[in-house]
Design a protein that fits this description.
Chain A is about 50% helix and about 15% strand. Chain A has helices at about 5-15, 25-30, 50-60, 65-70, 75-90, 105-110, 125-135, 150-165, 185-195, 210-220, 245-250, 260-275, 280-290, 310-320; strands spanning about 35-40, 70-75, 95-100, 115-120, 140, 175-180, 200-205, 255-260, 300-305. Chain A starts with a helix and ends with a helix. The interface between A and B is medium-sized, with 27 and 27 residues.
Chain lengths: ~325, ~325
């Protein structure tokens, strides 16, 4: 991984992915006790940053290989990202999802032109199904985070942060990034290190699922004890990636973990003060900015809201915290 | 009113107001049966386009006059726009609001540094209170729409639409604009006429409060029979302005009126597909794009969502339509 790969991805994404802005509100500054800037990747195509990495990976494939199609395992934001990236290139996408995934997610992915293949979590092995389909059709697997071209794509969000912060005259800031497997955090960290070295990435996770925070503290990879049971499900992964963790270890400050209530309260503040829709896992960065001020340094914080794919029931639960 | 005033306002606003993007979703295109682009002025500072006009008017004042301060009558988006514009210039703002305005609106306006003066709707005359304060302190009144520099400021949103549509290769489109007194609609119409003559503005209002639609049809100003009783309260005004109506009459197509249910359903689609928060009056434009396809022409429609200042209860009501 290097900055040239991120810059090359940015060229491939230009005119296809959105350059999301930096938003702000004096009301958020007051809660946080410092200047808060928010990069709303919920406004990215498909509603999350995942589209960046997916389009980077799909567009980097050899055209002959790409023409045979791509495959991904995901019931969430990565699925929609890969589906749209493949659709934009006019190539087939197969998305493997559990049969009990929410109907809306199945429908949304299919509506973006993907072939959705479901499996029974209790009786079937998704990897076996995926490997068979990939072999039969010559499909290329697009991994969700531990994949150089995916990290490069996520890093394009970091290039935008570096450029837009510079335009605002900001030389030093903590950059809070919602962290699952670390694809977004590592890409943003690489971009900032190259173009805005005064910006330091801090990973943010849900309490109890803070494998990256504990791994950074230990200096080696730690696993989560469980993979379910948190509303921030979009960013719960077993452990940091083999590619992403060394980057995080080199470039990031200590990890931060926030509670479910803090994530919901941050969603409510994003609604009230920025007029954007964040999902629980996408709001942990803003939650850290607003409610973990004592763990942060400096007078400016940039929180990257990673996605906004949340169902109305969960969103109403967040509004009820107001 | 002329295009030079709008371009001058754009220069004054540069670096202070946000250039809002054009958002889209294939799911919205499918509902509408044509390409739908959304300009989210809910993402503007203070959560609505009103900040543009307010900043334009305040920044156009002679510095000595401005230093004495400004005054506005508003319980809504105009109040916050004027408060922030005055704060940015470091001059006093007095906002006259009914004492029974929602507590959150009173608090938000005061938090932006304005002096909020309340009056009793039943027993006091707000114009008398405003005139007395203005005379005592030398304050300049900032009218909400029938004011050249306010129209010029709102027109800057039209300059952005013209430029961004051109960048997307769009030469012809209907531009749907939420319409109260007509400040935004007339400003956008002037900007489009000058810079993108293939873009035609259509005003959108709530059913039963469609004074502009009826005025356009009659060729002369018509009044609304009532001023309360609709969830789109932000865009309910007695009648089109004396300055705005001649512009609308010259440049706009027929007006459109949408139901409360359509406004709520459009808010829900903006949540689901664009991840933005629209208020009922701000969503009528998207409602027209999605649910009044037979009243529109061409293969592309641009809907300007004018604001996102909505309380959680009303937003939950919109989500319940999904």
């Amino acid at each position: 991984m290097n900055i040239e790969m991120i810059e090359a991805a940015a060229l491939r994404l230009q005119g296809h992915a959105r350059h999301t802005p930096l938003l702000s509100s004096p009301f958020l500054d007051e809660i946080a006790g410092r200047r808060v800037l928010v990069k709303p990747e919920c406004l990215q195509l498909t509603g999350s940053f995942k589209f960046r990495g997916a389009l980077s990976a799909v567009s980097a494939l050899d055209p002959k290989v790409r023409a045979r199609g791509v495959i991904a395992f995901s019931s969430g934001n990565h699925a929609q990202g890969v589906a749209l990236a493949a659709q934009m290139h006019g190539v087939p996408a197969v998305i493997i999802m559990p049969a009990d995934a929410p109907a809306l997610k199945l429908a949304n992915t299919a509506a973006l032109g993907a072939e959705v293949v479901t499996y029974d979590r209790a009786t079937e092995d998704r990897d076996e199904i995926g490997a068979r389909l990939a072999a039969e059709r010559g499909l290329t697997l697009i991994r969700p985070f531990d994949e150089p071209q995916v990290i490069a794509g996520q890093g394009t969000a970091g290039l935008e942060i570096a450029r837009d912060a510079k335009a605002l005259g900001i030389e030093r800031a903590e950059v809070l990034v919602c962290c699952g497997g670390g694809g977004l955090s590592s890409g943003v960290a690489l971009a900032c290190a190259a173009h805005a070295p005064g910006l330091r990435v801090r990973t943010v996770e849900p309490e109890g699922f803070d494998d990256v925070k504990r791994s950074l503290a230990a200096g080696e990879i730690r696993r989560n004890p469980a993979l379910t049971g948190n509303i921030c499900d979009a960013i719960v992964t077993p452990q940091p990636g083999d590619l992403t963790f060394p980057i995080l270890k080199e470039l990031c400050g200590p990890g931060i973990a926030v509670s479910e209530h803090e994530a919901l309260a941050a969603m409510a503040q994003a609604f009230l003060r920025l007029k954007i829709v964040a999902e629980p896992g996408g709001a942990v960065s803003l939650a850290a900015a607003l409610y973990h001020a004592d763990e942060l340094e400096g007078d400016t914080v940039i929180a990257l809201i990673s996605g906004g794919n949340v169902d109305p029931e969960m969103f109403s639960r967040a509004l009820a915290t107001l």
